[in-house]
Design brief:
Layout lengths: L2 H12 L2 H9 L1 H11 L3 E2 L7 E2 L7 H8 L3 H7 L3 H20 L3 H9 L14
Antiparallel strand pairs: 1-2
Helix pairs in contact: 1-6, 2-3, 6-7
């Protein structure tokens, strides 16, 4: 797994309203676009400081990102705070309208409840 690439995706998309909206509406297209336009470059969002050739998403990472599978991302070692915040950005409004405040956060905790008492997967790259 390229934890760096996955975490970079989560960080960049979560902090850009246009990318976040695109990720919510068409995840596969946004993941492909991000791989082409953003992943090859080191540096802050929108900056093209240095091109890199070593960053890659593998098929499992790509599938988890496209399917919004935050449990799989967590278990692969994506940073738990990044997975939580991006999916709050995507789902909170819908969940709150249906089930009230913090509904998505409760679901997130429940789906990762099997990790209680265990060491979390390392987020170290």
């Amino acid at each position: 797994m390229s934890k760096y690439a996955v975490n970079k995706f989560l960080f960049q998309v979560d902090r850009d309203p246009e990318l976040l909206a695109a990720y919510k509406s068409d995840p596969a297209a946004l993941v492909a676009r991000w791989e082409e336009e953003y992943m090859p470059y080191l540096g802050a969002q929108g900056q093209r400081i240095e091109r890199t050739t070593w960053l890659r998403l593998d098929e499992d990472e790509r599938r988890a990102l496209v399917e919004h599978d935050y449990v799989a991302l967590f278990e692969m070692g994506a940073h738990f705070f990044l997975t939580l915040t991006i999916f709050i950005g995507i789902y909170e409004e819908d969940y709150t309208a249906r089930s009230g405040p913090l509904s998505f956060q409760r679901e997130y905790a429940a789906k990762l409840g099997h990790w209680t008492g265990r060491d979390y997967p390392t987020v170290e790259c």
